[in-house]
Amino acid sequence: MPGSRRARADQRAQRTNAAVALLAHGDDVAAAARQLAAQHGLSERQARRYVEQARQGGQVEVPQARVVFTVKLPAMLARRVRSTSHARGQTISALVTQALTEFLDRLHPRSGR
Question: What is the pTM of this model?
Answer without folding.
Answer: 0.62
